[in-house]
Fold this sequence. Notes:
Blueprint: H1 8-28, H2 34-54, H3 70-99, H4 105-134, H5 141-156, H6 167-191, H7 195-205, H8 222-254
Helix pairs in contact: 1-2, 1-4, 2-4, 3-8, 4-5, 4-6, 4-7, 5-6, 5-8, 6-8
Amino acid sequence: MIKNKMSWGKEFWLAALFLVLLMGVDFSVRGAGPLVRGGARLMFALVVAGIVFYVPGTMKIFQTKVKLGTFAKIWGFIFGICLGGLFLLISILGHTALMMHAKTVVADTMMALSAGIFEEFLCRGLLFSAFLSVFKQAKYKFTEAALASGIFFGLFHFMNLISGQGFLPTLQQATYAFVIGAIFASIRLTTNTLTWVVLIHALIDWQPGISVTHTVSALASWPVFLAVWGTILVVTVIFLISFDSSYRQSVKEDV
């Protein structure tokens, strides 16, 4: 694994500072047009990405990719192709069709890119790195770090309450954001880079009106919601555990 230039405690403090600064950026452009808000968000996200990149000096976690075992490959196929691939395809096709008629397509694109860059460099970059240091002696350190950073990613969405979003929609949003955060951590581990999660995140957020408002009001049926996202979480955790096993095996082979 690649060592960081900063202790995990300082990484947590830096993450907290970025969140405070983000609220400051949003406050400073309140009342401005979509282009100004989207541009300000994107510039801030790029600055944060540059600072986070400096901490380890790379977007990689490992010197070389971890070779997955047979079990991990099977679950990776189920998780990546059957679940993630289908969801992403539907999401991209649907959003692309809608964006063709959007009046704020440029501002929406900048806002989506800013979300992908800022949130991934913060959660799957800085925080994931910090949690890997915290759990470095644990047997399933990658699983625990992925879930812990996912929890923070979910809690991050409670900031939408400030914008007037209802509590129950926010609770559901935070819940599926936690699961998606664990999925993104899995993708970062297997690809050994932040590039793919940034792009996927931006594509998911690329939808009409995101530069105007990013709040949600729809509320899904709780039994269906928990069944769907609970199943996805279980599949993701099984894959993460198998990744930990593959990593331990690769370490033994290198010794």
